[in-house]
Structures are given as C-alpha cells and as structure tokens.
Q: What sequence folds into this?
C-alpha cells in the first residue's frame, strides 16, 4: 500500500513539474514567456483578440518599440508596452531584435559598465536603443550612432535578472 501511494505521489509530482515548465514557454513557439521583442512595422493595429475580426483598440506607431509578449494564440501574440498597455498583434509585425526604451529624464551612456567610466552620450526619456548585451546590472546598447552601457534600472525592455551575451 505504501509503495502504491509513493509511486502515485511521485508520478503526480513529475506531472506537476512538467506543467510548471511548460507554463514558462509559449504554447505555439516554445519560446520563453514572457519575453521581449520589438515592433517590426512602423504602424501596427493592436486588436482586442487574436484575429482580424476583433476590433482594433489602437495603433502602435513606433518602429523598433520594445514590447513584452505575454501570450500566444496561432499566428497572434498578446503584447504589452512599458505602460502595460497592449493587445493582440499578428506575429509578422514583431521582431526578435531586442530594443529598450529609456525611462529616466537623462541617462548617461558610459563607455564601460561602471559608474565612473567616461560618458559616451546622454539619452533622453523615450529614446529607443538596440540592445547588445547585458550583465547583472548593466546593458550595452546602440542609439543614434552612439554605443555604451547604461544601468538596467534606467530603461524598460529587459528583465532585471536577465543576462544577454
């Protein structure tokens, strides 16, 4: 009797562990969820549901804007922007290219990931930059011909614990 209960408990824990792991990836793509992407198009209809028959709630109008994918359904991805505003976009309108958007009034883009490193440029709130790599606390990026490092706390588009090589 004890062995039957032990085997049942073991099988149940294996099944639950499998469900937990699957919850962290998209059911369509198998890619991590949530994940960051960027807007490929210069204009994209954001719909209330995952099909063209659903109402357009608004239009994203900023190419390369970072977005977070939070759900998948067929060829549709539910996304949100840095303000948590979002909806459903067709997958052809997004790119896996990583970008970030500056959240502070002025961010010093430094030549090295150190607070005392020389400043390469100043980035204003709302600037979109292309992400290159991230350490625990800093990310390397490019914006308008400038390259450098900024602290993760100064922008939106990466998870705080995310490391990118």
A:
């Amino acid at each position: 009797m004890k062995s039957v209960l032990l085997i049942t408990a073991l099988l149940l824990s294996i099944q639950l562990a499998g469900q937990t792991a699957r919850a962290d990836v998209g059911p369509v793509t198998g890619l991590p969820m949530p994940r960051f992407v960027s807007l490929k198009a210069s204009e994209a209809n954001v719909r209330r549901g995952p099909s063209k028959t659903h109402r357009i709630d608004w239009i994203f109008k900023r190419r390369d804007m970072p977005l977070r994918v939070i759900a998948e359904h067929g060829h549709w991805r539910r996304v949100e922007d840095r303000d948590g505003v979002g909806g459903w976009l067709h997958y052809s309108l997004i790119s896996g290219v990583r970008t970030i958007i500056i959240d502070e009034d002025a961010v010093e883009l430094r030549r090295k990931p150190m607070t005392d490193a020389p400043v390469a440029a100043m980035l204003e709130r709302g600037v979109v930059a292309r992400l290159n790599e991230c350490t625990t606390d800093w990310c390397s990026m490019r914006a308008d011909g400038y390259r450098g490092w900024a602290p993760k706390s100064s922008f939106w588009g990466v998870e705080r614990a995310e490391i990118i090589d």
Remarks:
- The two ends are 52 Å apart (CA to CA).
